[in-house]
Amino acid sequence: MILAAPTPAAWVDAACAHWRELLVDHANCEKKAASSALALIFAYPEDEALCAALSRLAREELRHFEQVLQLMRRLQVSFERQRPGRYGAGLRAALRAHEPARKLDLMLAAALIEARSCERFALLAPRLPQPLGAFYDGLQRAEARHFELYLRLARHANGDRGDDASLQARLRQLAAVEAELISASDEQLRFHSGPPPAYLPARAVATPASLRRAAPACSGAVPPA
Hints:
The structure is a single chain. By secondary structure, this protein is mainly α. It has a domain at 11-78 and 96-182: Up-down Bundle (Ferritin). The chain is 62% helix and 0% strand. The protein contains eight helices and no strands. It has helices at 9-17, 19-43, 48-74, 87-92, 101-124, 132-157, 165-183, 208-211.
């Protein structure tokens, strides 16, 4: 499984109750997704396949940003500055600093972020008011394409070897870090945060056993090359 743990139900409850705050962070996430794709293009200009794929991806992420802004205006949600959550920094801290390992880690981390977005859009879509629910249902399919793209780029960074045991092992390591980040309680509700303390049951402990429930299809196994 690409995601090591499903989103806690407490996060979904909090997100549905505070969807306006979450929508603002969603707009920021779309900007960051476009920026990250462009940063990878600048970091690896010699990789023509990566540059072509991520150029298209960056344009799509910016279109999503524009769509979120339009939806915010329609729903009368004001844009405001938000403090960043710990998710991105926590995941980056687990990445290796030397090449070519860093390139592989960057692709795998991006795949995990997109897969988590896919899973959360799928969880929120049926529970949020319209038109937000329908919008998130469509984005879920886009995020599934994105995480599959980053996995293909990870294989390419790994040398397109038939035996990708090392890639799978590294993916499991990073997925464990990502799962811990979204499972632990967070004071700030963000699209990739853990659940706020107020939504956790008394004496709740964030362990894999307490978080076990069915995850959407976008958190499934790595697709074949």
